[in-house]
Amino acid sequence: MTQHPEIVVIGAGAWGAALAALYAAQGLRVTLIARDAAKAAALAATRTSPHLPSLRLPDGLAIAARPPEAPVTLLAVPFQHLRETIGRLPQGDGTLVLCAKGVERETGALGPEIAAELEPRRPCAILTGPNFAHEIAAGLPAATVLAMTDAVARRDLVKRLATPRLRVYGSADPIGAALGGAAKNVIAIAAGAVIGAGLGENARAALITRGLAEIARLTEAIGGAAETISGLAGLGDLILTATGGASRNYRAGLALGRGERPAAEGGVIEGLATAPALLARARAAGCEMPVTEAVTDLIGGRSTLEASMHRLLGRALRDER
Questions:
Q1: How many domains, the chain?
Q2: 103 with 205, same domain?
Q3: 200, containing H or E segment
Q4: Of 154, 158, 160, which Cα lies nearest the Cα of 144?
Q5: Do residues 156 and 295 share a domain?
Q6: pLDDT, tens digit, for every residue of 239-257?
Q7: What is the pTM of this model?
Q8: Are residues 170 and 148 in contact, defined by beta-carbon separation less than 8 angstroms?
Q9: How far is CA 213 from the centre of its chain?
Q10: Of 39, 101, 159, 184, which one is the catalytic site residue?
């Protein structure tokens, strides 16, 4: 008799494969869902992911093209495909854990808002933090945040998803956690652009710090907690993404700073889609986000990096807040 999975991971990119392998290695029954039957068959035959060549998928990890119902489903698809993916889930009442980071282009919605619209009866959590997939796959130590409003369910899920090498902290603020994970990609593009243009470490530090401040302002404006942005879901993730050479968003910024187009890579550069959607969300909330605005204009070709920096440095002087 086939046993049902304890965890389903939807999305066989680098992050999905790393998470599926992580939990399968803990002895849990895990099913990894690939985009189609051909990709699922290839993964099952080779037990290797093209996105993480050094990772061998555990023999006990099931791989399929259609997700079964499970007590916990992790969604690790590119963020702009999140709505479609949730809409195609099988009927059930298992908990959804959103592992993708971004803001929906068409609506400005965050992950928990999309899930609440499409699956209002299902429990939903956000898994986010400073976590590069290749390091998780290599078993290196890391910490992350599991954000969920239900305190009892949150404690149970934290225990289920924590491992000896991945420390999971709980948070009661899914909106703040989701916004921190999305917005840091935009600030990382700005940080990369500054370094790519040779403007120096001082300028990068200033952009990271002021970027963090504007993320916190928007978080409060839409009902989240500013202190969330001071933790792993905000500051921690931003430091990693805005300084780590493995960050696709940072590398996209480097290219823009050098006057080049960001190179097409094996993964999605979420910040490119997030920036204009984030700016529109901020304007609707009456929240000023000058760094995000500068990035949006830069990637849209409406401003040069020099003009953007001149505009940021020329803003009215005031106390820091």
A1: 2
A2: no
A3: none
A4: 158
A5: no
A6: 999 998 899 999 999 999 9
A7: 0.94
A8: yes
A9: 19
A10: 184
